[in-house]
Amino acid sequence: MAASSAAGKTIVVTGGAGGLGKAIASAFLDAGANVAIFDVHEGRLKETAAEWEKYGDKFITAQTDITDETAVATFFTNAAAKFGRIDMLINNAGIMDKFDAAGTLPLDLWNKVLGVNLTGAYLCTKAAVNAFESQSPSGGTIINISSVAGVRGFAAGAAYTVSKHGLLGLMKNTATFYGPKGINSIAFLMGGMDTNIVDVFATGFNQEGMARTQSVAPGFDPAKQLIRLSDVAKYCIFFSDPAVAETSNGAIIDINKNWPTV
Question: Is 235 in the active site?
Answer without folding.
Answer: no
